[in-house]
Amino acid sequence: MTTPFEELIPRALVSDTDDERWEIVAALHRRGDAGIFEAAARLCAGDLSGERELGADVLAQLGHRGDAKPFLDRSLPILREMARRECDPMVLRSVLFALGHLGDERALPEVLDSAGHFHNGVRHAAAWSLPNVMRADDAEAVAALVRISRETDDDENRDCATTGLAGLDADDTAIREALSARLDDTVVVVAAEAAYGLARRADRRAERVVRRYLAAPDDNDYTRSLMEWTAEELGDAELLSQVRASRVSVCAEPPAC
């Protein structure tokens, strides 16, 4: 028997663990009916920050099936208004992630405005969402991602913004130079994202990150995948072969005692 959403929502509001809370949110997403939308909309107007945060999290992917987003046009104005007036950084963070999941260009002004927020978590959410709501050649949005990619005191923000820049379809000097500036990043995955972004633009500067990786490969699957994709984008079969060989070499090492 399916638990009514009227019981699930209060349970999520008082949950002591993120896992339980997100399990409930995911269940509400899957059900995705009008009753849940109305309940989430009421939460978004709630007096308590926990209510508003949960409301935004539910609207983020309510009823999504592939490209189908049945509540997009009803959710978007609620979330945009929240982005304009919300004072609680954690609620605003959820609102921005929700706008990113909806992926509608009408949300660009609100997401862009939050890219300069004082709270690093809000800027992180803006960096994640911007590529989903911007035109690839939007100069203001690109500049916002570039600024966040330079946050040397926040690895997660820098990584998120670099990933966003790397994946844009646009190609100009500002994007290339921002990516180039991250090639020597102390966080390997940030440098790898930057290299992949340059390789997508046929920029051979990406190769030096692959060479650096080959000199000291690690067992992080995602980093290795980025290095493979970079070599593929560069069209360098020999380099790709070396990266793949490093995967075998790392995997063949005995476990540490």
From TrEMBL:
<dbReference type="InterPro" id="IPR011989">
    <property type="entry name" value="ARM-like"/>
</dbReference>
<dbReference type="InterPro" id="IPR004155">
    <property type="entry name" value="PBS_lyase_HEAT"/>
</dbReference>
<protein>
    <recommendedName>
        <fullName>HEAT repeat domain-containing protein</fullName>
    </recommendedName>
</protein>
<dbReference type="InterPro" id="IPR016024">
    <property type="entry name" value="ARM-type_fold"/>
</dbReference>
<dbReference type="Pfam" id="PF13646">
    <property type="entry name" value="HEAT_2"/>
</dbReference>
